[in-house]
Structures are given as structure tokens and as C-alpha cells.
């Protein structure tokens, strides 16, 4: 058996394309050495065959004409085998080189991949660190903004509080001024009312006005002897206070006593010549019950000029004892005591 003869040109092209020499010979043999395309198609169709890497063998042709033909065939077969072995050795060397190159490339690629991974890790770490730094920066900015906001709020609250306190002080001052003004006006009204009441009582009693007492006395000085008053208004008020304090639980009785005393004084001022107005019987039941039994009333009448006569049974005011100034002052004090609800209650 011998290796079949194939087209060496086609064989070389197949080897250049990377096909092994044994497979190329087998493909060219079985495709009929017709064309390169037929050989490639055969290789693709039979690449998984069990004998794809075995040289095909054909019966050896014996030439009768020449005895040296066997040597030529032998030499040709040996040349083909040597060529196939050489190609196989080259392929193995190329494969080894390719494997080494692949290993080196894989190592280089691994190093590059490792470097890329390291760069990615560094980039990721840097990105994360930058993100954390930005987050911390945002937190710091937010804290600073919150602090500034709290400061502004505290400042606004302080200013609002100061403004409120200032407004309250102003309102209090204005209210105090208004109260003081109202008190002043009230005092003025009270004084005016007291003055009007005094004037009204004087008119009711027939007494002259205060501004005309000194210049126009009711009794001509030629008929009534004027005497210097030995009694003061304070003494008159003291007896009236005593009367009020001793009977403070019976205000109606005190008021009625004041009214009777005022009536007695008014009658004398209006009719100083009438003796009946200047004479009081102490045993009179009405007078005794309403005036005489109240401590301080008899003493008040004595200060006004009355005197006890005939075994203390009468109070008499002599004509020469009539003092219009004293009687006017007594009438004013009685009227004031009646007008003031606290008269005699607050004094010691």
C-alpha cells in the first residue's frame, strides 16, 4: 500500500490556510484533486471522522517497464512522509509557540485585567469618598444654615419681645397717665360737686355763699355784736366724729340726728331774732330720742353757742351769742359729714 499522489499546489495552499498536511492529503485524495474548494468542503464535512488524521493508502502501482520505478515510488512516499512529518513538527512548534503566546497574552491580559480592576476599585473608592465628602459637606452646610436660622429666630424673638415689652410699657404709661388724668378729673368733679352741694345747702339754709360771708354778713354789725370765733372747724368735726363712731352700727339714727342738728342751725341762721329757734327743751321726747341720747350731740350744740339753763332742762342760745360765722361753719361740717359715707369711720 502507498500514499496516493495529490496536487502539490493545492496541498501547499491548504497548508498555508492552516490545515494539517495529513488532513490536506486525505481531503485532496477523496475530493479527486479537483479543486481547493472541494477539498475544503470535504474537510468541513469529515473533520469529526475517526480516521481524519490518518494518511490514506492506495494499492501501489508496479511498473513493468522499468525496474527503478519501485525506488521512485519509495522515494516519493518517503518524501511525502518526511514532508508530512516536517509539517507536523512545524505545526507542533507553531502550536507550542501559539500556546506560549496565548499563555503570555493571557498573563498580560490578566495583568491588564488586574490593573483595570485595581483602577476600577480605586475609582469606585474615590467616587464613594467624594460622595461621602459631599454628603458631609451638605450636612455641615445644613447645620450651619440651621444654626444661622436659630440665631435669626432668636434675634427675631428677642426683638419681638423687646417690641412687645416696649409697647406694654408705653400702654402702661399711657394707661397710668389716663388713670391719673381720670383721677384728677374725678377729684375735680368731687370737689366741684362738694362745692355745689355746699352752695346748695347754704341756699337751702339761707346762708350766704362762702365768697360773700366776709363782705356781706347776714346780720348788720350794729344790731348783732360780732365776736371772734373761739371754736374751730376741727373741734366741730371731732364731736361729729364722736357721734358717728359711737353709733356706727345704726347709720340711720346718726343720719337722722345730723339732719335735726342741721335744721336747728339753719333755723337760727334764717331767723336769728326768733327765740323759739334758740331754745331747746331737753326733756322733749322727740329731741331726746333722736338727738339728746346720742353722745356728742349736746356737746356739738354747746360749741355752736347753746348753754344749759334751769337745772339743765333747756339749751338756750342768747341773742348776744349768735355767731353767724360759727353757725355757717357748723352747717358746712354737718352737711359734709352727711355727704361722706366714710366720715368718722377711718379716723383714729
Automatic annotation (TrEMBL):
User: What name is this protein filed under?
Assistant: UBA domain-containing protein
Ranges where the UBA domain occurs = 5-46
Stretches with biased composition (Basic and acidic residues): 127-136, 143-203
PANTHER family per record: F13M7.16 PROTEIN, UBA DOMAIN-CONTAINING PROTEIN
Q: Where is the composition biased (Polar residues)?
A: 68-78
Coiled coil location: none
Which portions of the sequence form the region Disordered? 66-203
